[in-house]
Amino acid sequence: MRVCIYGAGAGGGHFGARLAQAGHEVSLIARGPHLAAIKSGGLTLISGDEEIVTFPAATDDSSEPGHQDLVIVTVKATALASVAEGLKPLVGPETRVLFTQNGMPWWYPLGIDIEQRLPALPSFALSDAYLEAVRPEQILGGLIYSANEVREPGVVFNNSPGANRMDIGAIVPEHDGDAEPFREALRAAEIGSLPVNDIREAIWKKLLFNMSGSVIALATGNQSSIARRDPALGEVYLDLVNEGLAIAAAYGYRLNDELRPEEMLKKTLDHKPSLLQDFEQGRAMEIAEIVLAPLEFARAAGLNTPALRTIAAIVVRRAKDKGLFA
Question: Is this entry keyworded tRNA processing (predicted)?
Fold first, then answer.
C-alpha cells in the first residue's frame, strides 16, 4: 500500500515508522531539521524497550510522491489552511484521505443531513478549498489515542507503549466499508484500530476528554493527571465533562451511558497533552478546535456552560499573552 504521512511530526512520525516497518511504501511530508535528520539518518521510533529505525522517503514537496492509496494528514488543525493545495498531487480517483486532527474537525458538516443548527466555525469554511482536492466520499475521519513527542530531529518518542490506536471511519456513512482495509493495515502495523459506527459520535467522545483534562493541564501547566490528583481541579473536570455531555446530547449524541465523568477522571494520564506541549514550545495551538468550538456549539444550542466558558477565557488569555493565538 502506498501511504503518505502529511505532517510527519510526533504522531505522524510514529505511525509512519510503524507502517514502513510493516512493509508499506511510506512517504513523509515534513520540514525543517526534522526532515533533514530523516533524510540523512532515517526515522527512529522509541517505544518502551523497542527501537525502530526506518528509512521512508521524505520530502517537503508534496508533488514528489505521486498518487497514494492513503494520505494521512497529521498536521495540527492550526496548519490545515495551508494543506489543501498540497494534497492535490497526492490524490487520485481511488485515494482515501484521513484527517486526524484534535477537536471539532473541518469536515463535520459534510456528507450528511444535519438537523441541528451548527455554529459558523472558521474551520468549517475550509471545506471550499478541500473539496477542490478531494470528494467527501474519499474522506476518512480519524482519532488518535497515542502520546508522542519529537525528542530530537528524526527521533519520535512514544509515551504510551502498548496502548496506541487510530480509530477511523468514513465521513459519508454509506462508504464506511472503504475504511476497513486501512484499519487492517494499521492493525498489522501494531497500531490498534477499532470499527467506528459513527465517526461524529466518536469525535464528540474524544472531544470530551480533550476539553476537560487537556484544557485543565494547559490552564495549570501540569500533566493531565493533575485533575485526578487535586480534588478542587477534579471538581472542575467533572463540571467540564458534564457540560460536554449536555452539548453532545443537544446535537443528537447522548453519551451518558457510555462516558461516566468519575471514571474518565480516574483515567487521566501522567502526560502533558499536545495543547500544553505546543504552549511550552511556542507553537500555534488548537484552542479554537478543542476549547472554543464546543463553547460555540453550546451557544448555538442555547446551553449555559459556565465551567467551559471560564476555563476557555483563561486559556485563551494565556495563549494570547504568549502570541500563540490571535
Answer: no
Q: What is the C-alpha to C-alpha distance for residues 208 and 205, in angstroms, rounded to an integer?
A: 5
Residue 115 has pLDDT above 70, yes or no: no
Average pLDDT (102-111) is 94
pLDDT attached to residue 283: 92
Distances in Å between the Cα of 221 and the Cα atoms of 104, 158, 277, 326 are 23, 21, 10, 20
Domains in the chain (CATH in brackets) are 2-197 (3.40.50.720), 201-321 (1.10.1040.10)
Choose among 96, 121, 9: nearest CA to 60.
9
> Are 25 and 55 spatial neighbours (Cβ–Cβ below 8 Å)?
no
Q: What is the DSSP secondary-structure string of 270-325?
A: SS--HHHHHHHTT----HIIIIIHHHHHHHHTT---HHHHHHHHHHHHHHHHTTS-
Q: What is the DSSP string of 8-28?
A: -SHHHHHHHHHHHHTT-EEEE
Among 102, 74, 65, residue whose Cα is nearest residue 8: 74
Is 0.90 topped by the overall pTM?
Answer: yes
